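G., the chain you wanted modeled:
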Amino acid sequence: AAPTARVCSAEASCASAECHAWDALATRYCQPSDMSLNLWVLAPVALLLLDAEGRVLAYHAPAMTNFQLPSQGLVGQLLPAVLPDEVGRRCSEALRSARLHNIHQVFEYGLTLHGEPREYEARVAPMRDGDFLMVVREVTEFRVAEKELVRAREEALERSRLKTLFLANVSHEIRTPLNGIIGVTQLLKQHPLPAEFGEYVEVLQSAGESLLGIVNDVLDLSKIEANRLELESRVFDLEQVVRDSAKSFFAAVQKKRLELRVDVASEARGPVRGDPARVRQLVNNLVGNAVKFTD
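Predicted structure as tokens:
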């Protein structure tokens, strides 16, 4: 004979012999003053008490058809047998694993309800007396939200990739004419010029090199965002790189009537190994800020 239990369901009234006592579950697992049973009844989930074989002892659901479970005649039946084939198979596997390992199991499945795809999550937990409690909840909205988050993340990554590509392309396009301007100023400095025009050439070269430094910073930023920034490793003269970098600020220093002096410690002289371009950038940033914010 089927175990006695009550079915509290929106679609199963207590007017027929099929309406068994759900209170039996409360008597077995809850104290009279315990609120857990009330919370179970109010929860928008399907609750099923199963024996060791997967036979339904008691159940509760706000609307059984929402879970594609029969609203009547469920008590005493093997749950996997009344579920859709694939869902029943996964239910059997979860019960077997929960019984074998004595730990709760989780599986998800999809169904079509009223012509619309729905997603469900089922949890099977072993009880102290050898029975199992199965909790089924609909997770359609959660899964839709997750997919929206994934889509939004992918779109953000794509926009970031396009921005990085744009910055890299623009930086390369700007650097080419800038290098040409700086090269011409260096050629002009090789010819005798009036003092006034020589000063103009110095300012032009300094401005071009400063702008080139900004473009290189933008290019480096795009490389960092693309995880493509690589440091060069070669032998170079650290003192020479520092002094050459400082020369580009002489015009700005003279204009503000400041003094820029480069002192290199004896242990820092001679060949070193590293990335001279990054050292030059570092010096340019430090000296540039110092000149800019010094009166």
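Strands lie at 8-9, 46-50, 56-61, 105-113, 116-126, 132-138, 234-237, 271-274.

Shout if anything looks off.
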